[in-house]
Structures are given as C-alpha cells and as structure tokens.
Structure prediction request, 65 residues.
Amino acid sequence: MKDNGIGFEAKYAEKIFDTFARVAGSGYEGTGIGLAVVRKIIEKHDGRIWAEGRPGAGAAFYFTV
Prediction:
C-alpha cells in the first residue's frame, strides 16, 4: 500500500512501528499507536511488516502473512 503523506527518513523505517513513536513531531494528528497495532497483528500471524518512504513524498508499506 502506498500513500502520499508526509513520508519519513530511511533511518526511521523501524522506529515508525514503535508504540507512541512520532517521528514527524507534534505538528501532525495521531497518537502513534496505529502502526504498532498493525505490526502486532501481522506478527501474531507469523508475518513481517516494513516500510519505505521519503520526506515529502509519502511512504509504501509492505507485509507478509
């Protein structure tokens, strides 16, 4: 799945899945738990999730189950 959101720097590719992680700062809505919940669900099904992004260019999210 791809989006056209704010994106993120490559160095944060794992951190964005941490609970309450807010790599974009406080200027954006959200609680920082959405991707953490998704990761838990994927991992419960023996899957893997990862993302690629660029600041200002959105992100792409991938997963296996």
Observations:
- The beta strands are 2-3, 48-53, 59-64.
- Residues 53 and 59 are 4 Å apart (CA to CA).
